[in-house]
Automatic annotation (TrEMBL):
Keywords: ATP-binding, Membrane, Nucleotide-binding, Transmembrane, Transmembrane helix. ATP binds at A317, I318, P319, R320, Q321, G322, K323, T324. Residues 290-504 form the FtsK domain. It comes from Amycolatopsis tucumanensis. This is FtsK/SpoIIIE domain-containing protein. The chain crosses the membrane at residues 114-134.
Length: 693
């Protein structure tokens, strides 16, 4: 008979086969042990080692108690077994069931007697055996016999899997190194329904330590999308048994990245706990406003910079979450550039912005009508300034101004007088909600509405002319920040808000369905928010949005930065306006401003409810394809049937369209095509009667 190739040799055990397989590695790495030695989890880090040592000590301390209780349980168990046997329990029960107990009674009694005798004989035999052993070997024999009996009883009385009262006892939380095991990951992805039962993951890189956590890159099965993993991060965190704040999921983009490649990072502990980081601006002698401003760090403690020039920023949060701090961080970078000009308006009227008064070209602090009027006047001044800048840039040499956009050179040339100018408004809702009526053009409107129009203009037309708008609000709802203003604010930062609707108002439509919901942030995480950078910016181009923990800038640091900003301006000769003691307001040609705003206000001469729909949608009237009726009814607080009828009378007929719902599923809902709305508006404006048929 032919000999098997391995005969005579020790059989080599195959490594466990895992579903996950490794790709893109030059030398394939065994993911499940095999011929290569894999470091046990407790050797992977000092922390894991300490955890393992603690677990061993705890086990040793508990061991005597556990042994004693197991022996006790074993003794009781043995006694019960013996009693059942001696009483001929099973025979007796069977006879009872078949109602033949009386017939069998004599038989049972005889058997019971016999078993008692056997028991007595065994006890006598054991006792005499022990006596003989004692006489031969002394007390050692008794101890030995006692030990053997204890072990037998302990084994009999050990707690078994699934036994009632069995407690799950784990030595602390699951080790993260264990969580990063490929098979655990595959199971977690399956449990979270991110991959099917028969699908598997491909590991691009094995788990490795990155910062204070574990990182792993994986490829999803074909047709599965990284965006869905980001969206269902909570489910994955639950399946991996980690807190969702510890789990960072990113899509790998650019070279080597694709729609199905996911980078996972699991922090050892809450990445936003511990002392906050001080802003590096404290150490900066000065700052170039054209450079992105140090804003905060992400979960992996990587610095996140926020460009401000050519864009704008909206910060929204419920009170006491770090909104003012975020706005002051953005302002600090501009304060430290002596060539930038600052308009600082604080609707809260507290001390938060007081220090900025010494550098601000225009400064308003308070929520009274005179304050709102002052803000309106300063914004009017800026609108005129923007118009003038465009005219001046058009007249400039092509070499100085190649594309009707401000450049660093232009912004720093005192002769051209076009410095980077920031409008920073804290608690902007105070100014936007003021209902006092004023005359604009030929119409009377609320001053707050006018402020919104001016800000919308500045955020839309201002960036290319060097205007930066930074708005912070504790009321991020659609009524307070009209969509015509919101839609033109480039970067968004949402700290904790009340619900997903408010989060979407700050971050943009449907952001919650893509996995970005600022209402899920923890109250204890002060200064932590979701940053959705402007699409044009380089920073953050890797992902749509990211969680950022803003730098901490204590009051003293803030005051020091403002004082430094003043000194820099004094030295550069750029201290102007309020900071230089000049509070005179420029006389404004309001007709020019009204022209600039396109008819004076954001409202058109449209009948209701179309006028409100247009106002609510703002720029989205152009950007969106479809708007659900339910959304309009909720936003405008109107009654649905009446609204539908009135819209019909104005020539706007509803239709059905698929839109993604909150859970990401596509749902067919009733609503209006924006193209139909635009056509109806054009028709009304051109004077033709709307066709209600
Ligand atoms: N990055 C941060 N790290 C740690 N703590 C922070 C951070 N940012 C803000 N905080 C703390 O959060 C609290 C609230 O901050 P801040 O005043 O900026 O909030 P706010 O939202 O502007 O509040 P309000 O609505 O009352 O004006 C402060 O005590 C501040 O110290």
């Amino acid at each position: 008979m032919a000999e098997a190739p391995n005969a005579g040799h020790e059989v080599e055990r195959a490594a466990p086969v895992f579903d996950a397989e490794l790709v893109d590695e030059e030398s394939p790495i065994s993911v499940g042990g095999g011929s290569r030695w894999r470091r046990p989890a407790w050797l992977t880090s000092r922390q894991e080692f300490r955890r393992a040592v603690r677990a061993v000590i705890a086990l040793l301390i508990r061991l005597p108690f556990r042994f004693a209780s197991a022996v006790g349980r074993g003794a009781v168990l043995m006694f019960r077994v013996w009693r059942k046997w001696v009483r001929v329990h099973d025979y007796r029960e069977a006879a009872e069931k078949s109602e033949k107990l009386a017939d069998k009674f004599v038989e049972i009694r005889a058997l019971t007697l016999f078993r008692w005798k056997v028991s007595g004989a065994v006890v006598a035999a054991v006792a005499s055996g022990l006596l003989v052993a004692y006489l031969l070997y002394g007390s050692v024999a008794l101890w030995g016999a006692g030990a053997v009996a204890a072990v037998v009883l302990a084994v009999a009385g050990r707690r078994k899997e699934g036994a009632p009262g069995r407690k799950t006892v784990l030595p602390g939380p699951r080790a993260l190194a264990w969580t990063m095991d490929p098979q655990v990951l595959v199971d977690a992805f399956r449990d979270a329904k991110l991959i099917g039962k028969d699908e598997t993951l491909r590991l691009v890189e094995r788990a490795r330590r990155v910062g204070d956590g574990w990182a792993i890159t994986i490829d999803l099965p074909a047709t599965r999308k990284a965006a869905d993993v980001i969206k269902h991060r909570d489910a994955l965190a639950s399946a991996l048994a980690v807190d969702e704040v510890q789990l960072i999921v990113e899509r790998v983009r650019g070279r080597g990245g694709h729609a199905g490649r996911v980078f996972l990072w699991v922090a050892d502990e809450d990445p936003y706990s511990g002392p906050p980081r001080r802003t590096p601006l404290v150490e900066a002698e000065w700052w170039d406003a054209w450079q992105p401003i140090p804003f905060g760090v992400d979960a992996r403690r990587r610095r996140i910079d926020l460009p401000l020039v050519w864009t704008s920023l909206l910060v929204g949060a419920i009170p006491r979450q770090g909104k003012t701090m975020a706005a002051r961080l953005a302002a600090a970078g501009l304060i430290l550039d002596p060539h930038s000009r600052l308009y600082v308006f604080d609707g809260k009227g507290g001390k938060d912005w007081k220090a900025a008064e010494q550098v601000a070209h225009r400064f308003v602090c308070g929520d009274g009508l005179p304050d709102v009027q002052a803000v309106r006047d300063h914004l009017l001044e800026l609108v005129v300034e923007v118009q003038a800048r465009y005219q001046r840039m058009a007249a400039l040499d092509d070499e100085v101004c190649p594309e009707s956009k401000i450049t660093p050179g232009i912004s720093r040339d005192p002769g051209l007088d076009m410095p980077i100018t920031a409008v920073i408004i804290d608690e902007v809702q105070v100014f936007l909600e003021n209902p006092a009526k004023i005359e604009v053009g030929a119409k009377k409107i609320a001053i707050g509405e006018h402020v919104a129009d001016l800000l919308a203009y500045l955020a839309r037309k201002g960036p290319a002319a060097g205007i930066v708008v930074v708005l912070a609000t504790q009321r991020p709802d659609s009524q307070t920040i009209p969509s015509r203003l919101r839609s033109v604010l480039g970067s968004r930062f949402a700290l904790r808000v009340m619900d997903w609707r408010d989060s979407n108002i700050v971050l943009g439509e449907q952001m919650n369905t893509r996995g970005y919901d600022a209402s899920a942030l923890l109250p204890s995480h002060k200064g932590v928010g979701i940053l959705r950078p402007d699409g044009d910016m380089d920073a953050g181009s890797e992902s749509l949005a990211m969680t950022v923990w803003t730098y901490y800038m204590g009051n003293q640091d803030w005051q020091a930065i403002c004082a430094r900003g003043r000194a820099l301006r004094e030295a550069a000769g750029t201290l102007t306006g309020h900071a230089a003691g000049d509070d005179s307001r420029r006389s404004i040609d309001s007709t020019a401003v009204v022209m600039a705003l396109g008819g004076g206000t954001g409202r058109s001469e449209l009948p209701e409810p179309l006028a409100s729909v247009v106002e609510y949608l703002g720029e989205e009237l152009e950007e969106r394809e479809f708007v659900p009726t339910a959304e309009l009814v909720e936003a405008l607080e109107v009654e649905a049937t009446g609204f539908g009828r009135q819209m019909g009378e104005l020539g706007c007929r509803p239709t059905r369209h698929y839109v993604p719902s909150e859970d990401g599923e596509l749902r067919r809902v009733r609503g209006y095509r924006t193209a139909d709305l635009r056509a109806a508006i054009d028709e009304i404006k051109s004077g033709a009667d709307p066709d209600p048929s």
